[in-house]
Amino acid sequence: MSDKELYSILKNFLSFPAETEWLEFKEAKNNFDFDDLGKYFAAISNEANLKGKEFGWLIFGVKDNSKSIVGSNYRITNRAKLDSLKSEIANHTNGHTFQEIFELQLPEGRVVMFQIPAAPRGIPITWKGHFYGRNAESLSGLSISEIEQIRGQVIRFSDQDAKELKALGLIEGRKPNYLLTSSIASLVKKETRYIQNRGFDKIYYQDLIIQYLRKFGTITREKTEELLLPKLPDILSPQQKLNKIKNLLLEMKGKDILVREGAKKTTKWSLNKNKDK
Fold first, then answer.
1. Which end of the chain is more exposed for a tag (fewer CB within 10 A), N or C?
2. How far apart are CA 67 and CA 19, in angstroms?
3. pLDDT per residue over 53-66, tens digit each?
4. Gap between the Cα atoms of 132 and 116, Å rounded
C-alpha cells in the first residue's frame, strides 16, 4: 500500500467523531506494553468480526483524546524488529497475527499503522487464552453472548465458490438451499460427535465463569452447573460432569483467580480483584 493510500486511510479515520470498537489510537511515544498490545490485537480482531469489517486498526503516533498526530518512536531502530511482532503476537493467539504493519512518515512525526484482520468466522481470538473485546472505546473482556455470536457464525460463499464446490462433489442442491453431499455430511456428523465427546478446552470454561462474574459479581455452585453442564462433553456421566465443575472451581481458586466465600451449602465464588485487572 502506498504512502498516499495510507495517508488517505488515516485522514479518514481522523475525521471520525470518536474511536470505534475496531479502531484505536495510541500515542506510544517511545514504547508500548507488549501484553497490552496483544490484548488490543485480540479485541480489535474480534470486534472487526462482530461489526462486519474485514480489518480493524491500531494506530501509534496519534493521541486518542485529541486525535492529533504527535509521532511514535515505537521499535524505530530497524524494520526487522517491527516485523518480528507478527511472530511474537502469533505465539499467543494460535497463529492469528497482523495482516501488515505500515510506517507512515509525516511532517508531524512517524505513524505506525497496524492492520488487524477480523477474527475468522466461528473462531473468536484469544490473547494468552483469554477473550478480549471493546466496550465503546475501552478495552474489556469479550462477553459470553459475543463469544457465542462468533462461534455460531456460518460460512457463506459466492456463486463461483458454489460452482467449484459442486464440481468437487462437496455440496448439492440449488441456491440458496445448498446441502452437503452425503459423504461430507457423514464426516461432519463424526466431527460433531467428536466435539460432543471431547468438549471444549479448559480455558473456554474458565472464561465463561470469569465473564459471568464480571457481569454479576458472584456465582453459586448451582449457577455454575447451570452455566457449564450444557457445554460439557456427552461422554462424561452426570457425576463426572459435576466433579469436573468442582475441580475447575478449585483449580481456579488454587491459581488465585477465584475467591470462595461462605460455608459449603452457601458457598459463593467471586473474582480475586487483585488478579482481575
1. C
2. 9
3. 999 999 999 998 88
4. 14
Would 277 be classed as within a structural domain? no
Q: For residues 249 and 264, what is the distance between their CA atoms, to the nearest angstrom?
A: 13
Query: What DSSP character marks residue 64?
Result: T
Q: What is the number of domains present in the chain? A: 3
How far apart are the C-alpha atoms of 46 and 31, rounded to whole Å?
24
Please provide the DSSP assignment of 137-159 as one string: TEEEEPPHHHHHHHHT------H
Q: How far apart are CA 119 and CA 182, in angstroms?
A: 30
In whole angstroms, what is the distance from residue 60 CA to residue 57 CA?
A: 10
Q: Is 92 helix (H, G, I), strand (E, B) or coil?
A: coil
**Residues 74-107 pLDDT 10s:** 999 889 999 999 999 999 997 899 999 999 999 9
Residues 7 and 141 in one domain: yes
This prediction has a pTM of 0.60
Helix (H, G, I), strand (E, B) or coil at 57: strand
Give which of 255, 207, 256 is closest to 227, Cα–Cα: 207
State the Cα–Cα distance between residues 49 and 151, nearest whole angstrom. 11
The total number of residues written for the chain in this structure: 277
* Joined grid coordinates for residue 192: 460433531
- Helix residue ranges, H only, 79-143: 79-83, 85-90
Residue 58 lies in a domain: yes
**Residue 202 parent element (H or E):** helix 202-216
Are 141 and 36 within one domain? Answer: yes
Does 267 share its domain with 171? no
CA angle 183, 189, 193 (to 5 degrees): 150
Upstream peptide bond of 120 is cis (omega within 30 degrees of 0): no
